[in-house]
Design a protein that fits this description.
Elements (H helix, E strand, L loop, with lengths): L12 H21 L7 H25 L6 H19 L5 H11 L5 H24 L7 E3 L15 E3 L8 H17 L5 H18 L2 H19 L1 H28 L6 H9 L3 H11 L25 H31 L2 H13 L12 H9 L17 H4 L2 H12 L6
Antiparallel strand pairs: 1-2
Helix pairs in contact: 1-2, 1-5, 2-4, 3-4, 3-12, 4-14, 5-6, 5-14, 6-7, 6-8, 7-8, 8-9, 8-13, 9-11, 9-12, 9-13, 12-13
């Protein structure tokens, strides 16, 4: 008698559709939670109620599917869920980590193309809706200038006024637009047209003129360069990019956490870098003086900048370790290292492309643990789309077309059922 194996193709389209609907509503909820709607009492209560409803929804969806990997990957995410729940209950942790874990686990065997398309749709609709509300007067446009960080003249910017367009921070729209570009690159891969790079640059430059985020427009220039490098030299990119990403991650951690807290902070070169980065190293040093690193972090931190001292969490790595603590910070970094190893194993240049942009971007922005990057973790759990030039020759994951093919799955199931026990 052949071995009894799980019927992976028995997960219904209804279950997949249920995940996509919940995922769309959750990302939309996260976008609106960063808007001025969340600063109104009624808006905050409605968004919070919907968020808790979606958490319960994904919890039952997880139970409904009841088919998950029993390998190291499944155990790792189970550990992450346990630690995240413990942190939330006993150390004032926010819901974002628990939401991420539930989404990742309940997404098992989902169509990755549909996940990314759903994510892009939710980001676009949320950003457009909030921006329109600010333009018609429902929310405030809130233009403001930062005296210590003048972007006038940078890339021909005419002034230092930055518009939030209905959001609570001027960086929210630029980050969303940047990630939309990255996801479209992952969707299209070799079919991505050069003209789309030009369109992305024009759109992002328009966003830059309104919102004044230099980091996002510079990251887009880097992303366009790397995408074209992958298109013409994919194997060279992988060969150089894999060790570079590991070295880069270690270097960034030293730069973001160790350097500001050490005596090297006062070195002339460090001070010159600090000036170029608009005093971000000084901010990190001051924050670490107020909030020394500990195992479980300090939860959500808000700063009162009316007293004359400006403080902000503008570095994704220090934000992760200060708010979430050393334990969750290390677990999170292990997941990122796993993604890099997975990119090498699958020969997936586009996976590595996304990781590199995320690693570099979080030196000067805070989007490491952010809803914009949720699909990256979902793909890490389910398998990334496509390998090198569409190949998954070294991957244990199925190529995307075969993942979608019920016929291929049926043949695979029959072949396994015919294997003798113990083979």
């Amino acid at each position: 008698m052949g071995k009894r194996i799980p019927k992976y193709n028995s997960i219904s389209k209804k279950g997949t559709r249920a995940f996509m609907i919940g995922y769309f509503l959750l990302i939309l909820n996260q976008v609106l939670s960063q808007s001025q709607f969340n600063e109104k009492v009624w808006g905050e209560n409605i968004l919070k109620a919907i968020r808790w409803g979606l958490i319960i929804y994904f919890f039952f969806l997880t139970i409904y599917k009841n088919k998950y990997p029993k390998r190291k990957k499944g155990a790792a995410w189970l550990l992450f869920v346990s630690v995240s729940t413990f942190e939330m209950l006993f150390y004032d942790g926010k819901l974002l980590l628990l939401i991420l874990c539930l989404i990742v686990i309940s997404s098992y065997r989902s169509d990755m193309l549909r996940v990314i398309k759903t994510h892009i749709s939710a980001l676009l609709i949320g950003v457009i809706f909030v921006s329109v509300c600010s333009l018609v007067g429902i929310l405030d446009i809130q233009g403001n200038a930062k005296d210590f960080d003048n972007v006038t003249g940078f890339l021909l910017r005419p002034n230092n006024i930055r518009y939030n367009l209905g959001f609570t921070h001027f960086n929210i729209i630029p980050i969303a637009v940047l990630y939309i570009y990255l996801y479209i690159v992952i969707l299209k891969r070799e079919r991505f047209k050069k003209s789309w790079d030009l369109i992305a640059l024009i759109v992002n430059y328009g966003v830059y003129l309104l919102c004044g985020s230099r980091s996002c427009i510079m990251l887009l220039f880097l992303a366009v360069f790397l995408r074209n490098l992958i298109r013409y030299f994919p194997r060279i990119f992988l060969k150089i990019g894999i060790p570079l990403s590991i070295v880069l991650l270690i270097g960034i951690l030293c730069f973001s956490i160790i350097l500001p807290a050490s005596e090297l902070f006062y070195h002339p070169i460090t001070q010159m870098i600090n000036i170029l980065m608009t005093a971000r190293l000084s901010l990190i040093r001051r924050i670490m003086e107020l909030y020394p690193l500990n195992l479980w972090g300090y939860g959500e931190i808000t700063f009162d900048n009316t007293s004359g001292e400006y403080l902000a969490l503008d570095n994704g790595y220090i934000t992760l370790f200060v708010t979430r603590g050393i334990i969750i910070g290390v677990l999170f970094l292990i997941i990122i290292i796993y993604m890099i190893i997975n990119a090498k194993k699958n020969e997936n240049a586009y996976q590595l492309f996304f990781i590199l942009i995320m690693l570099i971007g979080n030196i000067i922005d805070n989007s490491l643990l952010h809803y914009a990057s949720f699909p990256l973790f979902i793909m890490a759990f389910n398998g990334f789309i496509g390998g090198l030039c569409g190949s998954h020759s070294k991957s244990t994951d199925l190529p995307y077309k075969e993942q979608r093919s019920d016929q291929y799955r049926s043949k695979l199931l029959k072949r396994r059922e015919n294997e003798p026990v113990g083979s």
